[in-house]
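Researcher: Good morning. I'm working through a list of sequences from a screen, and I'd like to move beyond sequence-only analysis. For each chain I'm collecting a predicted structure so we can compare shapes side by side. This is the next one on the list. No need for commentary yet; just the structure.
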Amino acid sequence: MSDTPWKTFRIDEHPDFKALPRDRCTLTMLQGPAPGSVQPVAGEELVLGRDEELTARIDDRGMSRRHARIYRVIGEWVVEDLGSTNGTFVNGQRLGKRPHRLRDGDRLQLGETTVLRVSMQDANEQEVAKRAYESTVKDALTGVFNRRAFDERFAQEHAYARRHAQPLTVLFVDLDKFKSINDTHGHQAGDAVLTRAAKAMNDAVRTEDLLARFGGEEFVVLARALDQAGAPVLAERLRATVEALVIEFEGKRIPVTASVGYATLDKDNDHPHAEQLLAAADRGVYAAKQGGRNRVVRG
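Model: Good morning. Structure tokens for this chain:
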């Protein structure tokens, strides 16, 4: 079993590529835990769900453990709901007990929030399609998610957290004195700092968390099921991760620190609107800046 089954890769470099049939079926995640990631249906069958034993595990709490399966019948790809709680939908229509024939371009929704695009293309066509979609959800400079991807996921996670009384934490990470880095070392150095910081923070967050570039030198982390006890731990980890970076550009070392603000939706802090939770985290990072930078403040 792969620890991170939904990853972005060149499809022709995937270990199962040679085993795929000529009319291969590939799934691209349009909406869900890892937008832009792809998964080929290797062999004759692929089971989708959140069971940790599944090859194509999707970490979506709205899905059943074994939610649906895609398989071949007489040369055709079909999808079958496996008795899931929240249903399987093809192009908006909920499936019954019978398998449904899939077509290139179909939208497959699993549960409440995960949406996959079905592609039946050759490797080159799929690579072009994947890159085109990635350009809409990834920040071109840093490679982490962009503001658009964050906004879509944030709305979903906030609604889910309030509906199911689950905690949800938002963290803002603002690189300190970034303008002076650009002024002193040049914009190429600033780009190098942003790229390195983004990669380090992306490695530091949990698999289920989403890191996005919010704008300029500011990043935002969406951390599902992270409560008041865990939020400052993650915030401090991000701050320390940035401070520990050793960034050299054209023979000069560039020190970097970050101010972090966070806010949590839970039973004691009922932010009824997503914007209120975001604003609280923003107040935290502003207070961290005002308090001397390179620190963590709860908003």
